[in-house]
Amino acid sequence: MIKGRNRYVSAILLLVIFSAFAGADSSTAVDPNNNGRGLFELPFEEVMDMEVISVTRTKGQNVFTSPAAIYVITQEDIRRSGLRSIPELLRLAPGVQVSRIRADQWAISIRGFTERFSDKLLVQIDGRTIYNMVFSGVLWEIQDYVLEDIERIEVIRGPGASLWGANAVNGIINIITKKAKDTQGGYFNGGGGNFDAIGSLRYGGKAGENGYWRAWGKHKASNDYPSAEGDFTDDYGLTTMGFRYDWDGGTDDTYTVELGGFDGRFSLLFPNIDVSAGTDFIEDTVSDQYGGNIRGRWEHQIDSTSSTMLQAYVNINSFTIPEDMIDFRSDWNLFDIDFQHDFMLGEDNSFVWGIGYRNSNFDSRGSEKISYRPSSSNFDMLSGFVQDCFPIFSDRLRGVVGVKLLDNDFTGFEYQPTARMMYQYSESQVFWAAYSRAVRLPNYANRDLFLNRKAVAPSTALTIEGNKDIHSERVNSYEAGWRSLVSKDLTLDVTGYIMNSDDIGDFVEVEPLMRQYNNTITANTEGVEVAADWQVSESWRLKGTYSWIHLHITRGAKGLEDNTPKNMFSINSYKNFSRDIEFNTNIFFQDKIEQDSDNGIADWLRFDAGLVWHVNKDTDIGLWGQNLTDSRHQEFNPGGFINVGSSEIPRSIFVQMTHKF
Length: 661
What we know:
Elements: H1 4-23, H2 44-48, E1 69-74, H3 75-81, H4 86-89, E2 96-102, E3 105-110, E4 121-125, E5 128-129, E6 150-157, H5 161-164, E7 171-177, E8 185-193, E9 196-207, E10 211-222, E11 236-248, E12 253-274, E13 279-303, E14 306-321, E15 328-344, E16 350-365, E17 370-372, E18 376-392, E19 394-408, E20 412-426, E21 429-440, H6 444-448, E22 449-452, E23 463-465, E24 473-487, E25 490-511, E26 514-537, E27 540-555, H7 559-562, E28 567-576, E29 581-590, E30 604-614, E31 619-626, E32 632-634, E33 648-650, E34 652-660
Parallel strand pairs: 4-7, 23-26
Antiparallel strand pairs: 1-6, 2-3, 4-5, 6-7, 8-9, 8-34, 9-10, 10-11, 11-12, 12-13, 13-14, 14-15, 15-16, 16-18, 17-22, 18-19, 19-20, 20-21, 21-24, 22-23, 24-25, 25-26, 26-27, 27-28, 28-29, 29-30, 30-31, 31-34, 32-33
């Protein structure tokens, strides 16, 4: 393993190599018959003008003038990075901690509070939440898609609850897929390496004069990663599929219907107990997960300044541990319907309001080891929001005020306001500031979980239970940022923030060998996030991010503080040798984390490199190496009552081919 100074020397040498490549520039021009293949699909100037929806929930807002800490991972970034999963792609954004626990498990958060199930991060795909209320988090292992069909990923650091609702506390990740019209014809992607294998197939066609559709399927599998401690397996397999139909009813109406499904088997390490022997042990077992979703959306243009949107979706998720000694199953179904109306109040005043209803139904089958009490429960939530974007004195100084109100079965009435301001100092510089309040609602596990690990003989096993009297977690966030087009080839984005969090939940001891979930933690967080984008030459582009964070627990257990690295950075280089050959590299760094252990987890630096050959306009072949500077490294240890065990992330080689037909 590369340690200390040698690690950083390696990174510097790699950058020197990049510089040498830049010197050997290829002065190629864009070939209109080649769709820009081998060059950059998205012109540099258009990135900052890209329209985003996550900040104001309306059309017309671009990245450059957004009064929020936003970063967009484009389709070009996805293709060039060589990263093969949605969790991995999030490494490209500043302020996002992406720690791989095992081959099939992740700990992902924004601005701290990192856990296996990071509960303060709201994640959506095309406006459909994949935030799971059973444990308040995202099962990243089942979130898969044909990556070529993702248009962009909008990453908002900081609260967005005034628009998107509860649980958008530390950030929002909005994954936006392409319209069916933009994915016509066939697409195949397949590849494998010393640890992973992936195959995906998509086909799109036209249905009638104004209708378009696509259908897709994908399978991926992984071999065991090296175990960081003990001897266990973490191989897995996942199959996903989906269908989308878009219909343009004319100038005023558009409709979308989308269906998706998944089926996977994943490794699981479960802390168990042999009651007859009175001893603890870790059971190496599996979990079966399957489910699906259906989403419908209708957009209606009333006139040139007013439009409405109605969306409804259903999520179905089933989780089973079939092992006889555990014998647990949970089924969680979510129905959500959402309506919004946006219009102009005068020439420059944009107003949007909306209402929504959500029903969550949970049913479980437990055992003496693990259960929910009660085994079945229902959750209803009614919400509404308003937001006004308006000029202050002039169009260069704009304000945004809004509030989200909701009433739910767990904590009753909640309010989540925001106030934002953007000042465009010049055509090339923007300053912004924001205040937001957000809440994180309890989940079913916080309220109803019962984990019985007591033994007949003396041991240190615990009984763990939820608490029906807990209330919501709250955060007050203060942010400010500066965004600049330093030159026609360089952009810089800097954000600073302070966040004060109250009533964070944790399991605390209420009596010997019994812990209960309570609102016991208070914390302060401050940090700085930087993103830069530099078009070095016609054939070379560099993107970099840096994040510094200081999370301080002022009351309660320090575990969440220890899970947060103070420094993270990334450097991504996209280099074209010629029209047909490109060389892309990634460098990722994460500072050490303590994780309640004697040694903690050391800082690590990862270097990826990939060579891609554009055989013709329809076929690409790529060779990628990941973690090349290190044979293996550990990134995170979940250290929970149920989620235990971690792997070391190994060096890997991967070959893949994509073909359009």
